[in-house]
Design a protein that fits this description.
- The protein is mainly alpha-helical and 438 residues long.
- The chain has three domains: 56 residues, no CATH class; 272 residues, Fido-like domain (Fic-like fold), CATH 1.10.3290; 72 residues, Arc Repressor Mutant, subunit A (Orthogonal Bundle).
- 58% of the residues lie in helices and 6% in strands.
- Strands 1-2 form a two-stranded antiparallel sheet.
- Strand 3 and strand 4 form a beta hairpin.
- Helix 7 crosses helix 14, helix 9 runs antiparallel to helix 10 and helix 12 packs antiparallel against helix 13.
- The longest helix has 39 residues.
- It starts with 9 loop residues before the first helix and ends with a helix.
Length: 438
Amino acid sequence: MRHPRRPPDLWSLFEDLSLEERNRAFRMADPMPSGRWLHWDDLRRRTPPEGLTAEAWWVQAKFGRKPLLRTLPLMASDGQRFRYALPDQALQFLSAIDRAGGGRVEQREPLRGSSQHERYMVSSLMEESIASSQLEGAAITRADAKDMLRQGRAPRTTSERMIVNNFQAIQWIREHRSAVFSPELILELHAVLGRNALDVPGAEGRLRRADEQVTVVDASDEPLHVPPAASELPERLEAMCAFANGETGGWMPEPVRAILLHFWLAYDHPFVDGNGRTARGLFYWLMLQSGYWICEYISISRLLKQAPARYTRSFLLVETDDCDTTYFLLHQLKILDRAIRELWQYVDLKQRQVVDLEDRLQRHGTFNQRQLDIMSRALRVQHTVFTYESHRASHGIVRQTARNDLLGLAEAGLLVKSKRGKQVVFRPPPDLHDRIRR
């Protein structure tokens, strides 16, 4: 991939400006030229406003950003502190994410209370585990990977093992969502992700050693990033956990903290292998811990995999412009916002399909209103169990009428009759939607 060009030295540019241009840079300082948080590599290719050179335009942008940038406890290898800002674009993303994916209980019901709940959960687990592994180089198709996970088949290759490990790691995160971040738990998460699936056997669950210096390279083996020395890692991991737990860094929206936590681990690269998987896992962990329950149903890695070069470039923009993590932050907020919007679009589609199936049953004319009510419940809550007594009590009818209603639906193939001890029970079949269509 094309590496972004480093910006020219800001103060050298400033000294080269005329007095009039300097005054204009102060007066017209704009952190977002063309409405975006542009890096020099992008800005220099655009046409500057009338009367400005690209260099003067860059000076205006940098002067506009200075008062917005906040310092992070993360320090670069050269001693420079990382910083971030929340420009209007970030605030717009955060507002949308809060509306669609935060604590509103009524939004949760279409997922948690629906017949699709388990399907959404399992599908998101699979999508994230597969896509995250493919980002790290797993050579397996999505269809083959899903088939393996659905069957519970033991992995046969390293790529398959990576996917199984990711699947188990996401379940581990859900189980530990309330736990305080600690170096021990992060090492445990890495051990789950890396078991028999790392380039260096036995490296899972431990920090890299001094003789294991890692350099991040691109597809052409061009160096992209040299992480901090191994001797610094224990202290840096402690500092990262303090940040994750909200003890340092000051107040910030939790999605911002989760994204910056993702960046932090990726920058430190504390493991010989599996750093990307672990970084994305920490993001999910903090988001779920912070009450963003919708992250149980979305796959960030699926969208990152669609444009992996942009994901990598967002890291490079940070390192080539004064440790400004706003580039990475905006990229990840955009991905998160898109993932949530696509989920709700899918949920809306499925709900429309349920309404369509209810209309089909209504128009069919074979079933009475009580039976239609049963089918509506079965379509929306797949694991509902119906009995003669529950149906009788719900509708205030005699037992024989309740019996006729349920047996009629079973004979039509829309409920499955079975025994639970001595009690007769009726359940919706897994393919209820298809049966109604037929």
